[in-house]
Design brief:
This protein is an alpha/beta fold. About 30% of the residues lie in helices and about 20% in strands. It has 13 helices and 20 strands. A six-stranded mixed beta sheet has the order 6-7-8-11-13-14, covered by helices on one side. Strand 3, helix 2 and strand 4 form a beta-alpha-beta unit. Helix 3 packs across helix 4. The radius of gyration is 23 Å and the shape is globular. The termini are far apart.
């Protein structure tokens, strides 16, 4: 099968030859490549396809997916790529099935197609969409429901985690907007979460942070004021507070965790509606990092990234590669089908943003995990740390985040000011 027109907007295709891109450009505005590099020796690959599309003046998007690992983020990225094109789209994988799968899943999620129609829709066009039907069945069985919100500026993902039975939810790792160049602050990210919660008829039970973040401000305090929900973080946040209290020279700062309503210890439990959550202490990236295991999902933030992106850095004050290794092993001891939701994605090789994997996928495909022992991991992780610059907002963000997301109090002139210690950290850009 070469190409099948699905709608006036979308044509689904098998792998095209690079030499055909100029011909494709005569009838289409953009090409979408869904094939991960290395699927087979004969495929051109992302770099070659991107170059050929550019030469043909053809829009191009790289959305690498496999049939067994499709997530809602992939579906929404496909829709975005289609909607961003200036005209008809030519989308391909190896044989076309993955493309049509993403298309029909989006139609079902948005209510334009019934799930019962999926397989017949594919069959009428020469495709087996039984995997799409199974994906929909799994999604309805998952508990909790998870909605991710990707922040392009920081590469961070925020989550709304809800119990479908009771419409109760938790917000995890929300972002308070900050522009370091102008000093401007804002609530665009947090307000998008509130809008979603309102549209879904959800009630917020918890506002949760996995750790004090180094690359963005937490919106926990802002969202508590808006929702009345309690805030929480790991109990070892007090260790982080003591460390950064000294860096900022705040002798009177109360490093006791009182800035949150609850401090979680390893093994503690809580509830979101009818769904139980429990705490895994996950230090290594920071002294205070925790993982929230909620139903069949685990929110791992800066421990494990997507399988093509490895693991989190361990060179912040209080970090340790050896400690992170132990934390990762604790997470990997969860059942293989446990959904893992990471806190960052930096879109390697120009692919779309992704944030959901499983324990089994990580064991099989993450180069920092698969076939690696502790000694090799520590060597790899510490070598990687040495080539990473410090996050550009670390000194800005920690003074807000160890205060539970509270901005500095206004001074006599009504303005708020951040304190910026010089020569406090190693890792200068030069």
């Amino acid at each position: 099968m070469s190409a099948v027109k699905i709608t006036d907007r979308l044509t689904v295709a098998s792998q095209p030859d690079i030499g055909s891109f100029a011909d494709i450009a005569r009838d289409y505005a953009a090409l979408i490549n869904l094939r991960p590099d290395g699927e087979d020796a004969a495929q051109p690959g992302n770099s070659a396809e991107h170059a050929a599309a550019t030469d043909a003046k053809l829009g191009y998007a790289f959305l690498p997916v496999t049939g067994s690992t499709i997530t809602e983020a992939d579906i929404r990225a496909f829709q975005h790529a289609m909607n961003s094109a200036d005209g008809p789209v030519y989308a391909h994988c190896k044989g076309g099935t993955r493309v049509l799968t993403l298309y029909v899943l989006g139609e079902v999620l948005d209510g334009r197609m019934r799930r019962e129609e999926v397989e017949a829709f594919g069959k009428a066009r020469g495709f087996d969409l039984s995997r799409a039907a199974r994906w929909l069945a799994r999604q309805s069985a998952y508990k909790p429901a998870v909605k991710g919100f990707y922040d392009v500026r920081t590469g961070s993902i925020q989550y709304v985690v809800s119990d479908p039975a009771t419409k109760r939810c938790a917000i995890i790792d929300p972002i308070y907007d900050f522009d370091e160049k102008s000093g401007a602050t804002g609530t665009t990210n947090a307000d998008a979460i509130l809008a979603y919660i309102g549209s879904e008829g959800l009630t917020v039970e918890w506002i949760l942070d996995t750790h004090p973040h180094a690359d963005h401000f937490s919106a926990a305090h802002y969202l508590k004021a808006k929702t009345g929900a309690p805030t929480a973080i790991g109990a070892h946040v007090t260790d982080v507070q003591k460390l950064w209290k000294a860096i900022y020279n705040w002798p009177d700062f109360p490093a006791d965790g009182s800035q949150w309503d609850r401090l979680f210890n390893h093994g503690d439990t809580f509830r979101i509606g009818t769904i139980e959550g429990r705490i895994l202490f996950s230090p290594g990236h920071t002294l205070a990092s925790i993982t929230y295991v909620i139903g069949d999902a685990a929110f791992v933030h800066d421990t494990i990234f997507m399988p093509d992106s490895g693991t989190a850095r361990t060179d912040f004050p209080g970090g340790s590669a050896q400690t992170l290794w132990a934390s990762i092993q604790r997470i990997l001891a969860l059942p293989d089908d446990t959904r893992l939701f990471t806190g960052h994605d930096y879109q390697p090789h120009g692919r779309h943003a992704r944030w959901e994997s499983t324990v089994g996928e990580q064991k099989h495909a993450n180069p920092h995990i698969a076939g690696i022992d502790e000694a090799a991991f520590i060597q790899l992780r510490e070598a990687r740390n040495k080539i990473l610059p410090m996050p550009k907002l670390i000194l800005h963000a920690l003074q807000v985040n160890i205060r539970g997301g509270r901005l500095p109090e206004p001074e006599a002139n009504g303005r708020r000011y951040l304190k910026f210690p010089l020569d406090a950290l190693e890792g200068s850009a030069w």
